[in-house]
Amino acid sequence: MITISTHLTYADALARLERLVVSSQKSHRFAAELSGSTIRLMYTPRIGRSELRPQFVGTVVSVSTGSEVRGDVRLSPRAHRLRAGGYVIGTLWTLAALVITQTQPGPPTLKLLPLAGIAIMGLNTLFIRFARTYYRDDETLLVRTLSEAFDG
Fold first, then answer.
1. For residue 119, what pLDDT is reported?
2. How many domains does the chain have?
3. In terms of domains, do 72 and 92 share one?
4. Whole domain around residue 143: which residue ranges?
């Protein structure tokens, strides 16, 4: 959980976030969305743009000293769909290969066919972990951008 505290009131914090959303639409450096008190922010460079980039999802909360943005950096919904799709394909492949190898006589190498489905699921896991590691600096950038939005 990431918490960004500010001395601004709740309304002022939302106004600053709205300004961040508008400026991000003009500069195309960030993809930002503000709905109610929830902010979604994702770094989108002109080169190397990827749907696997993490995004900050947080909520503005009023506290006694001003307000806070509480949230977390997580994978985008598209990355979750890609991950789920990889596991579904790997599972279906493994199950179909098991049925085929049990019902069809064939060479002994046919028994290795279910391992391909397990390999698909393993590669899917490695791919998502690689994306998290590769885009680790985005987390620092997103938190710094939100902090600067409240400071300036």
1. 93
2. 2
3. no
4. 2-76+136-151
